[in-house]
Amino acid sequence: MGNCNALQTKSVNATTQSQGNFPENELHISAPNASGAAFTGQKPFRHASGSHDIGPVLGRPMEDVKSYYNLGKELGRGQFGVTYLCTHKQSQKTYACKSIAKRKLVNKDDIEDVRREVQIMYHLTGQANIVELQGAYEDKHSVYLVMELCAGGELFDRIIAKGHYSERAAASLCRTMVEVVYTCHSMGVIHRDLKPENFLFLSKDEKSPLKATDFGLSVFFKPGEVFKDIVGSAYYVAPEVLRRCYGPEVDIWSAGVILFILLSGVPPFWAETEQGIFDAILHGHIDFASDPWPSISSAAKDLVKKMLRQDPKERLTALQVLNHSWIKEDGEAPDKPLDSAVLVRMKQFRAMNKLKKVALKVIAENLSEEEIMGLKAMFKSMDTDNSGTVTFEELKTGFARLGSRISELELRQLMDAADVDGNGTIDYLEFISATVHMNRLDKEDHIYSAFQYFDKDNSGYITKEELEQALKKYGLGDEETIRDIIAEVDTDNDGRINYDEFAAMMRKGHQEANANRRRDVTVGAPRHR
């Protein structure tokens, strides 16, 4: 896999010294663009007039998707587009239609990345357990990808809903994921963003196939080719990605992390901050002493260890994983249920930060005029098109103009922490939330005012009922979310949240954003368009 000796580093520094200059031993966190490539400092690929008419993206005659499909309800929204339910006019079959706004494609690299995603999806369509691309269309304003509709939900959601789980079930799911990796690698593709959220069930049926989705960060590769751009999602990124020297082995690492979570409910590399996560990944220590690992079979542990080898040359290939005794169909994986605590931890892992995001918005709403004045001016200076919202690019440019040394990773965290409505931009109030988050909530009165917002009767505790009432405003007040939040925050297990517990949660380092929003914190450009 090429020569990586010059890039061996022991730690990663998630800060940048100046725009465009990144020392070899530092982690350059890429700015987000439409498809996942790193920004390279080029001027935006736009006409001088400011027009966004960038011409054909797919390199073929434009075609109106609405000539063939009726677009229905919105299924999801990201920073660079919207996904709709669509129905084929002739067959009446339903699909998912992802629209990518051309005005968001700010340079030539962005356009090339969209083309590559389409090429890779066409290349892989027809392979088992990979979402199929039905067609790609383009008009003057957008590119449209019509894909197989996966309506069965995410991997973790299905496991949690069943309520019982075994090593054999984990082996079956892992086998499917690694079969996808094997297919990709044998066809010259590295996925580069494998994680549970990118595996969806085709339908609600119990025997529904699991499908790999989202090839926005994927690349074609040749044997021996070395990649250096840092992409992926924090918990799942391989150490050699952080060292800027990697090949297809990164997909096996990510699949190994998923398997670790499937068996234990938590990721193998954990810290209060993402910088801490990266350092833990590079250090490479994996805890097999804590529960539930003593009760997990030795064969399962053997496979996890071999998939998470620090040296990619020593890591198993996809074919070797599939031939491992534990993962084979009718293999060694026992059918006895795993410890129920695994499911509990998995649910808490999925529920992270829902309460915190709402609390940040509450703080923003209650800041004094004196505190807001400077932030208001800051927001106006960044909102260069006077749209009332700030995109990631505007945020990055604005902070650089203000002389801030904040890293692009921290900016990504600000965006994800504040974008409560999940539309991919931040409005004025969300901007205030982001800057409060950036300052790590040093002011005690901010935290206390947020606590009082939830503690409606001033009892000194946030009860289940008060939590439900407050979160309903943000569409988060369902029974399961409430239970998960209390389980995560209520450390003394009295069924309610006191001020100390609330404050401890608020001061914790930012963890990955809610995966349901389909736009996770990334160690590079975000996967979602």
From TrEMBL:
Domain EF-hand: 370-405, 406-441, 442-477, 478-512
Protein kinase domain span: 69-327
Annotated positions binding ATP: K102
Reaction(s) catalysed by this chain's protein: L-seryl-[protein] + ATP = O-phospho-L-seryl-[protein] + ADP + H(+); L-threonyl-[protein] + ATP = O-phospho-L-threonyl-[protein] + ADP + H(+)
Gene Ontology MF terms in the entry: ATP binding; calcium ion binding; protein serine/threonine kinase activity
Entry EC no(s): 2.7.11.1
Pfam families referenced in this protein's UniProt entry, alphabetically: EF-hand_7 (PF13499), Pkinase (PF00069)
Residues covered by region (Disordered): 1-23, 509-529
The organism's place on the tree of life at top rank: Eukaryota
CDD domains: EFh_PI-PLC, STKc_CAMK
Classification via PANTHER family: SERINE/THREONINE-PROTEIN KINASE (PTHR24349)
Record protein name field: non-specific serine/threonine protein kinase
